[in-house]
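Researcher: For the annotation table, I need C-alpha cells for Isocitrate lyase. Please keep the output clean. Sequence:
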Amino acid sequence: MPYAQDVDHIASLVKQNPTWKAINPKHAARMRAQNRFKTGLDIAKYTAKIMREDMAAYDKDPSLYTQSLGCWHGFIGQQKMISIKKHFGSTKRRYLYLSGWMVAALRSEFGPLPDQSMHEKTAVANLIEELYTFLRQADAWELNHLFRALDEAEKAGDTAKAKELEAKIDNYETHVVPIIADIDAGFGNEEATYLLAKKMIEAGACCIQIENQVSDEKQCGHQDGKVTVPHADFLSKINAVRMAFLELGVDDGVIVARTDSLGAGLTKQIAVTKEPGDLGDKYNSFLDGDFINSADEIENGDVVIKAEGKLKKVKRLPSGLFCFKPGTGEDRVVLDCITSLQNGADLLWIETEKPHVGQIKGMVDRIREAVPNAKLVYNNSPSFNWTLNFRQQVYDAWKEEGKDVSAYDRANLMSAEYDSTELGIEADRWTQEFQRRASAEAGVFHHLITLPTYHTAALSTDNLAKGYFGDEGMLAYVAGVQRQEIRQGIATVKHQDMAGSNIGDDHKEFFSGEAALKAGGKDNTMNQFG
C-alpha cells in the first residue's frame, strides 16, 4: 500500500479507537513500511517468485545469469547488499549463498570444523534467519533516512521534494533477495532432511541445495573420500524437501540437486534393482569388480551381484565401501543430473575439480539431450587456484595453436614474474570472462563463490593487524580503514547509525514525544562524519 494511503488507513483506525489518540498515523505507517516482511515464510514466498522469474529470463537470454557470494554472518550479507544497491542501483539477479562449509568452520558451538556435516544442523536455519534479520534492518535503515528527509521537506514546505521522496518510498527496492541454502546431504535420513528443510524454509529459504553423498560420510566437494548414494536414496530426500515446501505453502520453492560423482570413487551400498536396465542396475553397472564363472571363485565375505547377465564380484574396501570403476565419474554425473531433473529437482550443481568451461559444457550438453532446459548452479570455488588454472589453460591453448610458449614454465606459472606478461594478462581476461562464457556456453544460471568472505575477513584482518601492531600504529586503522570508508562512502563509518541508533531515537520520539531521551544529539561523536 502506498505510504500516503496507509497513513489515511491508520488515521481511520485511530479515529475509531479514541484511546489510541497518542498514535500518530504517519509514524505508524512509517514503521509498517520499514517492516515489509513479517515472517520468514513471507520472505520465502517472495524470493521464490524472484528466482522463478530469473530462471525463465535466463532460458530466453543466457546473458541474464545470476550471482551470489557466500556470507557467514548477517552483517556481512547486509553490507554486501547495501554495496550492490549503492554501486549498481538494484539488487536484481544478485542473491546470497549460505555455505555449509562456512557454517561448519565459523558457526558451530564445537568450534571450527571441517565441512563434514558435524556441526549442529540448527545452525543452518539460524544463519538464514540472521541473514534476513540484517537485510530487513538494512531496509529499515535506508527508509529511515528517506523518512527523515521527508520530515525535513514537509517542515520546510517543499512540496515538490516531499512528493519526490514519497515516490522513492513507495517504489522502494528491498535488500531482501533469494538465499541459496546448503543442507549438505540432509543431516540424516529423509525424515531428518524434511524436518531441517522445514526449519530452513520457515527462516526464509526459497532455495535448498542438497547433495548425493552419504550423510554420515559427507565430505567437502573439494576433499577426497567422497561417498555417493544410489539414486533412489537421493530422490527420497528431494521428495522430502519438496514436501516441506508444499506443506508450508511455498509452492514454487527451488531445489538444487548437487552431484559429487565426478570426484567420488566410492559408494556405501549397492543399489536395489528389479530388472536389467532400471535405475538401480545402471548405478551398479559402474561398480568396479571382476566377472566370475562359478561360485568356486567366491571367497569368504565377498559380495557378488548379477550384472549384464553374469556374476560380478564387486570390489570392496576394508571400510566396507564399494569402489566405482576408474574413469566413470563423468558418466555418473550425467546420469545423476538427468535423474534428479526428471524427479523433482529444478537446478543442478556439478562439483568439478577445476574451472574449465569446456569440461562443464561437455557434461551439460549430454544432460540437455534428455532435459533441454537443464541449468546449473556453479561453485566458483576458492579451492581452485584460479591464477594457475587459467594460465595453464592459456598455455595449453597457445601450444595447441602452434604459438611459441618456450618463455613460460607451465609448472611454475603461478609465479609473480608472469603477472605482466602476455600470457598472464590473457589468463586474467579468461578469468574475467569465465562467468559470462560459462553461462552462455555451458548452461550456468547461477554463479556463486562459497566462502569468499571467509578469505576477505582473514586478509583484511591480517593487513590491519600487521600495521596496527607494527610501526604504523593508529595510522593503520585511520589510513587503511576509516579514511577509506569516508572517501568511498561506506555507510559503516557512521557505525552507530548502521547499528540502528537513529531508528531507535525515532521510535522513542514516536512512543514518548518530547520526553524521549535520544542518543543522536549534538554530543554524539558520530556527527564528526557529517
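Researcher: And a one-line annotation?
Model: Residues 148 and 373 are 48 Å apart (CA to CA).
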